[in-house]
Amino acid sequence: MTDPTFADLALEVRSKNAGPFWVTMELFMRDEAGYALAAAPEIIDERVVARLYGVRAEDVQIFRIPSLNVVKISFPRPVSQGGLRDRDVHAGQHHVPLASLRAVLPG
Q: Which phi and psi angles does 74 have, rounded to 5°?
């Protein structure tokens, strides 16, 4: 059996605009166990997000909200919303690499 992805463990993984210069992604986890994996810095941290999205780790912001079982991640858009090279004006497809990430602790 393969390790589950965050898409397997979440109620929803979504991305959206956070203004013309930022993208926000949210992991709405089904339960506390799934949230514990999504919130674990050993699985999702600024370096992992930077590698997945080609942004600088220093620019990534991660918000962990245990009372809601939600992890929210924001980073600058690679190009501004509606710019000539913007291929996803609403940032609606940015969540796919995060949703595909394996939700397993290293070791």
A: -130, 145
Backbone angles phi, psi at 6, to 5 degrees: -65, -30
User: What's the full length of the chain, in residues?
Assistant: 107
Residue 24 falls inside a structural domain: yes
Q: How far apart are CA 104 and CA 43, in angstroms?
A: 7
In degrees, rounded to 5, the angle at the alpha carbon of residue 67 between the alpha carbons of residues 92 and 5 is 45
Closest CA to 24 of 56, 63, 72, 67: 72
Structure tokens at 104: 């397993």
pLDDT digits 0-9 by tens, 32-87: 999 999 999 999 999 999 999 999 999 999 999 999 999 999 998 776 566 666 56
Range of the domain at 87: 6-100
Full 3-state SS string of 7-36: HHHEEEEEEEECCCCEEEEEEEECCHHHHH
